[in-house]
Amino acid sequence: MLDILFAAQQRLFDLDNPRDVAVATIVAVQGSAPRPIGTSMLVDSTGAVQGSLSGGCVEGAVFEACQDALASGEPAVHTFGYSDEDAFAVGLMCGGAIEVLVQPFRAGG
């Protein structure tokens, strides 16, 4: 988490090229998950990514959630995992589910 916060600080307050960022953090886990609560991933306004929440299986969906948060300026909580009701939901290979808080931050603020 600390490396993500340092990367966010660098992007947000870069004197030559400040960039907005969204930080996605695992806030809850049900069942088996590849990474623990507190694991974070950063996406900046150029689409650059740092960190990983799942080792790849939900990264694309988390990236999209970060892009949405950057566009709207609003935080949101998303759940990623297998669902009996929705066979096409983005799922974790290990069969668990994670809740992810996505928080946007504006550059220079």
Distinctive features:
single chain, 109 residues, alpha+beta, 5-stranded antiparallel beta sheet, 30% strand
CA gyration radius, whole angstroms: 14 Å
Count up the domains.
1
Order of helices and strands: HEEEHEE
Mean pLDDT across every amino acid position? 85
**Cα distance, first to last residue?**
21 Å
* Lateral arrangement of strands in the main beta sheet: 3-2-1-5-4
- Helical segment tally? 2
Strand content: 25-35%
> Tell me, what's the shape?
elongated
User: How much helix, percentage-wise, in residues?
Assistant: 10-25%
Number of strands: 5
Low-pLDDT segments, ≥5 res: 84-92
Question: Could you describe the 3D structure shown?
Answer:
The structure is a single chain. The chain has 109 residues and is an alpha+beta fold. It has one domain (2-105). It is 23% helix and 30% strand. It has helices at 2-12, 59-72; strands at 21-30, 40-44, 49-51, 76-81, 97-105. It has a 5-stranded antiparallel beta sheet, sandwiched between helices. β2 and β3 form a beta hairpin. The longest helix has 14 residues, at 59-72. The two termini are 21 Å apart. The model is unreliable at 84-92 (pLDDT under 50).
What's the quick description here?
With 109 residues, the chain is an alpha+beta fold.
List the helices and strands and how they pair.
Elements: H1 2-12, E1 21-30, E2 40-44, E3 49-51, H2 59-72, E4 76-81, E5 97-105
Antiparallel strand pairs: 1-2, 1-5, 2-3, 4-5
